[in-house]
Amino acid sequence: MIEKLLSLSEACKRLGIHPNTLRKWDRQGKVRVVRTVGGRRRIPESEVERLMGIVKPDISKKAVIYARVSSHDQRGDLERQKQSLLDYARSKGYEVIALLEDVASGLNENRKSLNKIFDMVEKTEVGTVVIAFKDRLTRFGFKYLEHYFASHNVKIEVVNGEEPKDAYQELVEDLIALVSSFAGKLYGLRSHKYEKVVEGVKQLIAE
C-alpha cells in the first residue's frame, strides 16, 4: 500500500510541535523522514501516528472466505467449497470474519459478495482473502485483482492449484457468455450474424 506522506507543516500541526523540533528529531534519527527530489522533508503518516501513540490493530490474521459457483444446481458444490475453505482457514490460525458466496458467472463483475470484499479491503477490515481456485474470484484478470488487493496490504490465498476437471462445463458456459456479449455489441442481439457466431462457437466446443 502506498503510504500517505505529510509535509513538514502538516506533520507538525498534527503533533502540536514547532517545525524546528521535527527537524531536530530528523537529525537525531528519532523520526523516519522521506526526502523529495528537491530535498524537502516528507513524513510518513505512520510515523506521525507512532509519535502520537496511535497503534493500528493487526489485521493480517483476519480472513474472508469467498466461494462461488455459476448456477443454483451447483449448491452442493458450493457448500463443500465453503466447508473446505473454512477448515483450511482454521488450520492456518485465521480469524474468519466473513464467509461470503456468490452464485454467478466468473465473468460477472457486479457480484454482491465480491463487491462486499472490495469494501472490506478498502476499509482495511481484512488481511487475507481465501479462495479455492483463482477462477472463483474472477475468470480473467486475476493478476490485476491480486495487485489491487496487495496495494491495500491484503493477500489472496489460493488453496488449490489447477481447476478440477468437473469445472469444464462452467468454463464452457463462461466462454459462450463472453462470445455472446461481444457478438451482441458488434451485431446486435437480434441479428442473424449474432446467432451465427454464437451457434458456431457452440458447435466448435461440442466437437
Note down, in words, how this protein is organized.
With 207 residues, the protein is of the alpha/beta class. It has three domains: 5-51, Multidrug-efflux Transporter Regulator, Chain: A, Domain 2 (Orthogonal Bundle); 62-158, 3-Layer(aba) Sandwich (Rossmann fold); 165-206, Helix Hairpins. Helix content is 49%, strand content 16%. It has a four-stranded parallel beta sheet, with helices on both faces. A three-stranded antiparallel beta sheet has the order 1-3-2. Helix 4 links the parallel strand 4 and strand 5 (95-103). Helix 8 (168-187) packs antiparallel against helix 9 (192-206). The longest helix is centred in the last third of the chain and has 20 residues, at 168-187. The radius of gyration is 24 Å and the shape is elongated. The chain starts with a strand and ends with a helix. The model has no long low-confidence stretch (mean pLDDT 84).
- Contiguous low-pLDDT stretches (5 residues minimum) are none
Strand content: 15-25%
Figure out the total of helices.
9
What would you give as the CATH superfamily of the largest domain?
Resolvase, N-terminal catalytic domain
What is the annotated CATH architecture of the largest domain? 3-Layer(aba) Sandwich
- Name of the top-level CATH class of the largest domain: Alpha Beta
Could you spell the SSE succession in H and E letters?
Answer: EHHEEHEHEHEHHEHH
Number of strands: 7
Largest sheet, strands/sense/barrel: 4 strands, parallel
Q: Can you give the mean pLDDT?
A: 84
Query: How many domains would you count in the coordinates?
Result: 3
